[in-house]
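Summary for the lay section of the report: proteins are chains of building blocks that fold into shapes. Here we show the chain for Response regulator transcription factor family protein and then a coded description of the shape we predicted for it.
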Amino acid sequence: MNASADQRRKVVPVPLSELPWPLLHAVAELADAPLTQIAKGLRDAILPYLGSSALIIFTEDCTGRPQKKVGDEDIISKVSIVELGALRAALPDEAPWFGEVELAGRHRPVLALKHASSNALLVLTDPQPNDPQHADEVDLLMYLWRIAARRIREKVADAPPSYLLESRAASAERIRVTAELTDLHSTTLEILLAALRSDDTSAHSAVIDLTAKALVELRTLSDRTNDLVKEPVATAFERLRQDLRPLTRFGGLEVEFIEPPLNGRDLPGEVAHAARAIVRGLLLVMMEQPDVSRVRTQWDCDGVNLLINVRDNGRGTLAADAPSILRLNRRVQALNGNLQIDVMPGWGADIFVTLPLDPPARLARDITAWNLAPRELEVLQHLVAGERNRTIASTLAISENTVKFHVRNLFRKLDVASRTEAIALAHSTGLR
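The coded shape description reads as follows.
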């Protein structure tokens, strides 16, 4: 008998009654939690072992809602992207870090962790216990954080079209508000600086320095917001290459990458995420065909659209109406894009995807004004597609009564009296 078999023979099973069932249930709920509830699921799982006044997740995978947080309202309502970005930049690696930083307007003790592959940040404020000597609690937190960070990436990659629409609207609104605040306060500070500089007394030197610092910080905030919701096309393509590396390494598939121009226009975060998910989905569909050994993917940018081309060397058996292709096409349409398939029997499939870089201005404004919950927006999109309540319930894995509840809320928020009116209004904003 070899050593590994001997080790297996000596393993003593733990009685089921002694398993930590509350923790196991919490882990299961965390794994199944929607994006909006991942922070709560993570805190619920760790709270019996490691207390905190608030739990904050900062991830650039979710460009529309980069912060996911739960806990003390005084903290989660004030914490800023700039504070979280500075903390993340100061962390050297994935190791847990205990210390005191400025967060939500004042210095607080925190426990912080980074996730290497996604660069996401987890912060627990006022952790209890608050020192690294409690290794078991911290190890448990690291284990649960890895689950949460990976699930965030997976859920964003597989997000429904409604999430992309809501995220894009939120990103556009945050850019608009930040730009307005930056312009307003920059003008005020510049006028103040000019007035102070006109007086050459030493008494004003400190005020000038403080004002100049505030002006720099304000500009930095504006730049940081724009960086968060935009991604250089070359960087986005390199992330695609990294995402597809397991396919090339273990899937027996040769993938040829045609680089986009380095000076291409920055991509909105939702477009970059959707583009990577669409290409991944297309490669998986192509791999299901017989005799596909090589795929070529190419990105380009014409200043208005992201242009994607994916071609395989199969037999040309890919069907345009296959369920997997239709699902990908819905993601494309959610961003007002277009997907075309050119199937050549005996020569493979050639797929072209066009994703506009700018959303229709009216679409972002109207959807934000409706104040729809993510599920309501998803139901509305199914209504626009002409689906009945029963079909929507089956697709979303909810009851038909829940669909009716969402439809009633849609009628109230859109101020319409029928499905026909709701669909017509949605069409008028560009929603498809």
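Put simply, here is one thing we learned. The first strand starts at residue 54 and ends at 58.
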